[in-house]
Amino acid sequence: MDGKVIGLRKSVPAYPAARIPEPGLPENPETAKEELRGAEAGLERADKAWEEAGTQLDAARKVRDGLRERHQRVRVELYLKAEELKRVEDELVRSRKIRTDNDLESEHSKYSKLVHTEEEKVKSAGTDLLNKEPDRVKTLAETAKGSLETVGKKREAAQKENTEVRTRLKVFGEEGLHEKLHAARSHLEHIRQENAAMMRRAQAAGLLYGTMKEERDKARRAYVAPLKEKIEKLGRLVFNNSFEVEVTEDLSVAGRTMDGSSVPFESLSGGTKEQISLISRLACAMTVSKGGGASLILDDALGYTDPERLKLMGAVLARAGKECQIIILTCVPDRYNNVGEATTVRLG
Q1: Is the pLDDT of residue 223 over 50?
Q2: Which of 8, 305, 331, 348 is the 20 to 30 A CA-CA neighbour of 265?
Q3: Contact 327, 345 (CB under 8 A)
Q4: Fold adopted by 222-337
C-alpha cells in the first residue's frame, strides 16, 4: 500500500500536463465531488435512455417484421388478384364476341320495362283486392257456415219431434191428431226449404271465399286494438268500407263519417243510431273480454232495423260472439236467425 501511495505521489505532479485539456480539473476536492455526483447522475440518465432506446428499437423491429409479413401477403394477394383480373378480362372479351354491350343494354332496357309493367299490375291487383273487402266476405262466409249448422240442429230437433209424433200416432191412433200431423209436416217442409236456401248461400259464400283466399293472404291485415278501430271494423260489415266514427273521451260515439260525409250521431236515423249503439256495446265487450270481462245482455235489440240490415247485424253479432259471451232476450226469435252459431233457449 505504501508503495502504491508513493507511486501515486510521484505521478500526481505530471498528471496535469499528461491529461486531456477537457474537461478541466476542479479547483478543489469539494468541487471535484460535486462534478463526480453530476457525472454519475448523467451516467444513470444515459443508461436509462439507452434502455428506452433499446425498447423502442425492439418495438420498431417488431413493426418492421410485421410490415414485411404484411407486404409479402399483399404481394401474394396482388398477384392472385392480377391473375383473376386477367381471367375476367379474357372472359369479358370472349363474352363480348358472343353478345355485345349494346345487346345487353337493349335486353336490360327491355326487361326493366317488363318489370315496371308487372309492378303496376301488382299495385292494381292490390287495389282491386282491397275494393272487394276480403275480411267482410270471410266474415259473411263464416256467419253463413254457422247459420247452416244452427239450421242443421233445428232440423235434427224437427226430425226428433217428427219421430215422437209418429210414435204417439202409433200408440194413440190418428183420431184428433190429424191437424197436429199436418202442422208438423208443414213445419218440417219449411225447415227443409230453409235448410236448402241456407245451403245455397253457404256454398256461394264458400266459393267466393275460396276464390279470394289466395289474394287475401297477400293483403296486409290491420290488428284490432283500440275501441274506435273495433267499432269501425264491425260497422264496415253493416255499412261499407268507408265507415268511420268519432269517439269521445268518455267512449261514446259523437258522429259517423261515410263516403266522405260526416253526420253527428244525434242527427242519424233511429235505425242507424240503434245499429251503431249496439256495435259500440259489442266492441266494448270484445275489448274487455281478454281481461276477464263480463257477458253482454241485449233485451229485444234491433227493433228499428230493416230486414236487409238485420242479416248484416247477424254477422256482426256472430263475429263479436267469437270473443265474448252475448245473451239476447227476445220475444221475436226470428229476428236473429242470421246470427250464425247460436244456442236458443225457450223460456216458459
Answers
A1: no
A2: 331
A3: no
A4: Rossmann fold (3.40.50)
Q: How large is the average pLDDT for residues 193-212?
A: 84
Which comes out higher in pLDDT, residue 301 or 132? Answer: 301
The grid coordinates of residue 68 equal: 414485411
Q: Where are the domains of the chain?
A: 134-221, 222-337
Residue of 146 and 219 predicted with greater confidence: 146
- What is the SS3 assignment for 126? helix
Q: Does residue 23 have a cis bond before it (omega within 30 degrees)? A: yes
Q: Does residue 264 register a pLDDT over 90?
A: yes
* C-alpha torsion sign, points 185, 189, 190, 192: positive
Q: Which residue has the higher pLDDT, 258 or 344?
A: 258
The half-sphere exposure of 169 on its side-chain side, counting CA atoms within 13 A, is 14
- Count of beta carbons in the 10 Å neighbourhood of residue 152: 14
Q: What is the DSSP string of 40-96?
A: HHHHHHHHHHHHHHHHHHHHHHHHHHHHHHHHHHHHHHHHHHHHHHHHHHHHHHHHH
Mean pLDDT calculated for residue range 248-260: 85
Q: Which residues, including other chains, have CB under 8 Å from residue 281's CB and lie 6 or more apart?
A: 296, 298
Residue 30 to residue 26: CA distance in whole angstroms? 8
**Helical H runs in the chain?**
2-11, 15-18, 29-98, 101-131, 134-172, 178-218, 227-238, 270-289, 307-321
Residue pLDDT, tens place only, 129-188: 777 777 887 888 888 888 888 888 988 988 998 888 777 767 665 555 677 778 888 889
Q: Scan for cell 235489440, then name that residue.
A: 301
